[in-house]
Design a protein that fits this description.
The complex is a heterodimer of chains A (327) and B (379). Chain A has 14 helices and no strands. By secondary structure, chain A is mostly helical. In chain A, α4 (97-130) packs antiparallel against α11 (245-260), α8 (189-214) runs antiparallel to α11 (245-260) and α11 (245-260) packs antiparallel against α14 (295-321). Chain A is flat and about 75 Å long. Chain B has 379 residues and is of the alpha+beta class. In chain B, a hairpin with a 2-residue loop joins β4 (57-62) and β5. Chain B is elongated. The relative contact order of chain B is 0.12. Classes of the chains: A mainly alpha (327), B alpha+beta (379). The interface between A and B is medium-sized, with 23 and 28 residues.
Chain lengths: 327, 379
């Protein structure tokens, strides 16, 4: 008579972990079966995640560690040696005028772009959603800036905002208003770049909001109407706003990170000028790393950048997540 | 004072006519069911009463007031939706309180935090909370007040939806298949609870359902809708025993009514095939004899049919037979003890009860009929 022991691994030399799962017999004692299944499942799980783990280590974790290490050295590209200088790079930042300008400008840019692009996108999304027709058309129109190449679009903006031949100033001249040098004056340059940033981000946020809006059950609007919500305004606050919570959280995070990472418009339009007035964090990193080849210093700024982004995300998820209702 | 009056309501969506002239009046405090197959326009009609849908033509009156042009918010009706439509981000207390908040607080007073600081708001909030607690008490959901809809079972959600409807004592209740998302057992108990709630609240109620047993058990009156028209309005008994349209007769009743091709002879005698059935009618020509399963039974003489199948239901026995001449199927509901007396494959003679037989013309309109003694017919 076959006993449980007969079916043990010793008598089944062909048994692989996979077969171990498939071949579980009800006759096997329960604890053993459970342990074995768990071990088998876990093994397979690790095996299946292995490619992703390898890719993550090679592409994200190792470069991150390299940056972390570099940030505490004075390594310059091409140099034969480097020294550990502790927090020297960070101390340098405190006295670096272009670094402090880039921090200030990035903050202003974010505070300008995020609220405006989120607010405008939400307003447009609600209008488009409420409209009877043309939804696909409007969505495409506002999404165009997202799919178009920023560098190419930057030339168009350069022309539009040109102080003497640009249509924007031509229009202003016609109505008799002042004609600022949009990209050339240190007072206006960050605002001008901010407008371009809003233009870039609205379409992206709009599509996210439209998706969020279509997910709201129509019945809730009917219910709110019956419950006495007469105006679109009160329906918005009773139904739309709370139901958009998860979308809003995502949009805020994505817009903040996208605007902190602003680079291409600045690089193509102003190169951080005039006089550092549009110097932003990512451009400083680029400039230090690939222009002056100060890899150590560049890595240190990258670290600061990373800490800011992580901190922002942490604050946002902690603060907003508690107030967001998920489904 | 009348409850709800609909006058010749028509509604089209593009080229599709959904409602083709519906008139109906629901008395104050009456419970009326709108029943019909899916797509017959009953939900559209309810949404028109609620003000969620505009009429193409016709008029709606609620409590003597013409509300055709009014918005849902101004009609003083409450509605229970099929999937409850609770606000998922609000607690049970807040959900039930929404209709009161919207009506008793101004827009400024509703602003979170700041609104609460305005004078008089705290007092209003107190009365709202008291009313909400009353409604919740009536429905037995007092313990669930701080939960969100996601944390409730289907039956509990349904009660919250009812609570949101009764809390402001509306002129009329509209219920759109409120039981269809509940499991069968809960559906039966909730039926009687809704009826009891209706008696306590006493407002006119329109209840939309495709389930005839709900309509028959709960309502004071039933309106049967088909193809955008109300075919008949009457008490459940009236609808069952005295349908005015063949479609009504066929829709109400389970198993559904038997329909046999009949002929009215020039002398007014009705025959099914060669067999006179003891029913007289005016006029002559082809007709349809409709008879409920419980009103037709084997007899010494009658319509010859072969028994094909029987279903034993405990309290009754359903015998499925096929008429030999025409091949039409007939179902008889017999007392269960007849089970041993009828066997599959056997030929029996079925005799409809002439007093219960319903006669319809070829267009499905009810024909007047009278009982004749069978001797007359044979003579």
């Amino acid at each position: 008579m076959a006993t449980v022991a007969d079916w043990g691994p010793a008598s089944c030399p062909w048994k692989t972990p996979m077969a171990d799962v498939a071949m579980q017999s009800p006759a096997v004692k329960a604890p053993t079966a459970r342990a074995r299944t768990l071990r088998g499942d876990a093994g397979i799980a690790w095996l299946l995640t292995l490619p992703a783990i390898l890719a993550y280590c090679a592409m994200i974790l190792l470069p991150l560690l390299a940056v972390l290490a570099l940030a505490f050295t004075d390594y310059e590209f091409g140099a034969r040696s480097f020294r550990w200088i502790g927090f020297g790079n960070f101390a340098d930042m405190l006295g670096d005028r272009s670094f402090s300008a880039s921090i200030r400008n990035t903050v202003i840019y974010c505070l300008f772009v995020a609220p405006l692009s989120i607010g405008i996108a939400l307003g447009l999304a609600v209008l488009i959603e409420a409209g009877a027709r043309g939804r696909a058309f409007w969505r495409a129109v506002f999404f165009l800036p997202v799919v178009s190449l920023t560098v190419a679009m930057a030339t168009a903006w350069q022309y539009l905002l040109h102080p003497s031949i640009g249509p924007v100033n031509a229009l202003l001249r016609m109505v008799g208003a002042g004609t600022p040098n949009w990209l050339g004056s240190s007072d206006w340059v960050i605002v001008s770049l901010g407008f371009i940033g809003v233009w870039e981000n609205v379409g992206f946020n709009l599509v996210l909001f439209l998706a969020g809006l279509t997910a709201i059950p129509r019945e809730l609007y009917a219910a709110s109407e019956i419950d006495g919500a007469r105006s679109g305004w009160s329906k918005f606050w009773l139904v739309t706003w709370p139901m958009l919570g998860p979308t809003m959280l995502f949009v805020i995070i994505i817009t903040m990170t996208r605007s902190i990472r602003v680079f291409d418009t600045v690089q193509t339009l102003t190169q951080g000028g005039p006089n550092n007035a549009s110097e932003v964090l990512l451009r400083t990193i680029y400039q230090e790393g690939f222009h002056y080849f100060r890899f150590g210093y560049s890595a240190a700024i990258t670290l600061v950048f990373l800490v800011i982004v992580l901190g922002l995300m942490l604050i946002q998820t902690r603060l907003i997540d508690r107030r967001v209702h998920y489904g | 004072m009348s409850g709800i009056v609909l006058h010749d309501i028509q509604k089209s969506f593009g080229a599709t006519k959904v409602l083709r002239g519906v008139s109906l009046s629901v008395a104050q405090g009456e419970f009326l069911s709108l029943v019909g197959p899916s797509g017959c326009g009953k939900t559209t009609l309810m949404r028109i009463i609620a003000g969620l849908e505009a009429v193409s033509s016709g008029a709606v009156q609620i409590a003597g007031r013409d509300v055709t042009a009014l918005r849902a918010a101004d009609r003083d009706v409450a509605m229970v939706f099929q999937n409850y439509a609770l606000y998922p981000h609000l607690t049970v207390r807040q959900n039930i309180g929404v209709p009161l908040m919207m009506r008793r607080l101004s827009a400024a007073e509703r602003i979170p935090f700041i609104g609460g600081l305005l004078p008089g708001v705290a007092e209003k909030q107190r009365t709202i909370n008291a009313d909400v607690a009353n409604a919740a008490e009536m429905l037995g959901i007092g313990k669930l007040m701080d939960r969100k809809p996601a944390q409730l079972s289907g039956g509990q959600r349904q009660r919250v939806a009812l609570g949101r409807a009764i809390v402001r004592h509306p002129m009329a209740f509209l219920m759109d298949e409120p039981l269809s998302n509940l499991d069968a057992a809960l559906r039966v108990t909730t039926r009687s609870e809704i009826v009891a709630l209706h008696r306590r609240v006493g407002a006119s109620t329109v209840y939309v359902t495709h389930d005839q047993s709900e309509a028959m058990t709960m309502s004071d009156r039933v309106a049967v809708m088909m193809d955008g028209l109300i075919l008949q309005v009457g008490t459940p008994e009236d609808i069952y025993t005295n349908p005015q349209d063949l479609r009504v007769a066929a829709f109400i009743g389970s198993p559904s009514i038997n329909m046999l091709a009949a002929e009215v002879a020039p002398d007014g005698h009705v025959t099914v095939g060669p067999v006179p059935v003891g029913v007289g009618a005016s006029g002559h020509g082809p007709a349809i004899l409709a008879i409920r399963p419980e009103d037709i039974a084997p007899h010494a003489t009658g319509i010859a049919a072969r028994i094909e199948h029987q279903e034993y239901l405990g309290e009754s026995l359903l015998v499925h037979a096929r008429v030999l001449d025409s091949g039409e199927q007939v179902i008889c509901r017999l007392p269960p003890e007849k089970r041993r007396q009828v066997a599959r494959g056997e030929t029996v003679h079925l005799r409809p009860d002439p007093a219960k037989a319903l006669l319809f013309d070829g267009d499905g309109r009810r024909l007047g009929s009278r009982v004749l003694s069978l001797e007359d017919a044979h003579g």
